[in-house]
Structure formats: structure tokens, C-alpha cells
Design a protein that fits this description.
With 240 residues, the protein is α+β, with helices and mostly antiparallel strands. The protein is built from 7 helices and 4 strands, in the order αββββαααααα. Strand 1 (23-28) and strand 2 form a beta hairpin. The longest helix has 43 residues, at 100-142.
């Protein structure tokens, strides 16, 4: 008769020795424990990780143990589905033998594969971004090919803008001309303008100063005598 309890205890001791930093006992009846599995580091130190929970059934290992994923890191939903499927396949293949180490090892290998897939996905995304950047740069240099249709469309828009600008300018000039008053209109609007100069002189009074140095006395002026003028001709004067 198989002593299931003895087999389970022996396996627990072996697992605790193999996974000292990631093995944790949750309960003893039923026996339940967790093992955290982390992939090897990728090229850029990226990793994927999951914590597996196992619970022994009464007749384990002749029965498949209960298992689930308590947590995961950097795993997508389809990755979780793949891991659960892998656990089921491995459990069925190893039925009748203690199998936790085999199950954990299979998950470990799967996570390592996923890291490589993540690396490939990151490289593909990077390459795709580079291609899109190159295409965008080409568009900046080459622009839109000119066809008769898009040229005529552009010209119609351009001519409409020019016409509209001319209309605005004419309207502004017309408006500016209406607002500009003539001298007559200014006097008619402000009657003080016609007496402003006189009022200024009256208010100034004797305070208005004249700089006499600006004028010279008549005797200081050098005036040429008509007889000294070589072009002087008295005959012409009589004839006038």
C-alpha cells in the first residue's frame, strides 16, 4: 500500500532544499505551498516571473495536484494560458510519480523562451518605428507629387486668398480715407483754430524775443552798383 503522506513529506523537503529563496509553505492540511519562478535575464536585463501555487490531493502523486498562478510579472494573458496548459500536459505525463520539480522546471524553460520572444518583439517594434521614421522623413523631403488636379486646386485657393487680401486692403484704405478730415473740416469742427495764432501772440506779449543777430544792417550788406554790373545796359532800360 502506497504511503502518500510519506512521499509528499519527502518531496517537500527536497523542494525546500532546491528552492530555498522562493519556496514558501502556506498550509499543512492540506499541504499547500508556493514556488516563485523567474526567467533568466534577457539582453536588456528584462525578465518574466510567476508564482505557482500547488496543493497536494489526498492520493498525490497518483492524482494530479491542484495548481494555479498566484501572480505574474511581464506576462500577457495568452502567456498565462500557455503556462497553465503546459502544467496540465506535464502533470498528465508524470502521473504516479512526484512531479512538482518537473512541473516547475517546465515552467522555467517556458519563461526563458518567453524572454527571447519579448526580445524579438522589442526588436521588431524598434525596427518598425525606424521604418516609419524613414517614411516620414521621405515625405518631408519629397512632399506631395504635383498633378494637374491638385495644382489647379492649389491655384484656385491661392487666387481666392490674394483677392480676399486685396478686398481687405481696399476696404481699410477706404475706411482710412473716410476718417481723415480736410483742413476745412478741422476748422468747421473746432472754431478755436482760427484764433489760436492771435491768442498765442496776445498771451506772449512783450515776452516774444527776436534775435537781431539774424538780421544785418543795410549798410553792412555788399550791394553791387548797377554800373559795375558787366551785364548792365541802360539802352535796354529805355526800351522797356
Amino acid at each position: 500500500m502506497t504511503d502518500y503522506g510519506e512521499e509528499q513529506r519527502n518531496e517537500l523537503e527536497a523542494l525546500e532544499s532546491i528552492y530555498p529563496d522562493s519556496f514558501t509553505v502556506l498550509s499543512e492540511n492540506p499541504t499547500s505551498f508556493t514556488i516563485t519562478v523567474t526567467s533568466e535575464a534577457g539582453e536588456n536585463d528584462e525578465t518574466v516571473q510567476t508564482t505557482l501555487k500547488f496543493t497536494y490531493t489526498e492520493k498525490y502523486p497518483d492524482e494530479i495536484p491542484l495548481y494555479e498562478l498566484l501572480s505574474q510579472e511581464n506576462l500577457e494573458n495568452n502567456d498565462v494560458t500557455k503556462i497553465l496548459k503546459l502544467l496540465q500536459e506535464q502533470a498528465e505525463e508524470n502521473l504516479g510519480m512526484v512531479m512538482i520539480f518537473t512541473l516547475v522546471s517546465a515552467v522555467q524553460e517556458k519563461l526563458n523562451e518567453m524572454v527571447d520572444q519579448i526580445k524579438t518583439r522589442i526588436e521588431e517594434e524598434k525596427r518598425q518605428k525606424e521604418i516609419e521614421a524613414e517614411e516620414a522623413e521621405k515625405q518631408c523631403f519629397h512632399g506631395t507629387p504635383v498633378t494637374i488636379e491638385n495644382f489647379l486646386s492649389w491655384k484656385a485657393t491661392f487666387d481666392a486668398e490674394i483677392l480676399e487680401n486685396k478686398r481687405k486692403k481696399m476696404k481699410e484704405e477706404e475706411q482710412s480715407g473716410k476718417n481723415k478730415l480736410t483742413g476745412k473740416q478741422l476748422f468747421e469742427r473746432d472754431h478755436n483754430l482760427d484764433t489760436s495764432d492771435i491768442q498765442f501772440l496776445e498771451e506772449a506779449g512783450n515776452s516774444v524775443e527776436v534775435d537781431e543777430s539774424l538780421f544785418q544792417e543795410m549798410e553792412d550788406l555788399e550791394l553791387e552798383d548797377e554800373e559795375d554790373d558787366p551785364d548792365y545796359n541802360p539802352v535796354n532800360l529805355d526800351s522797356d
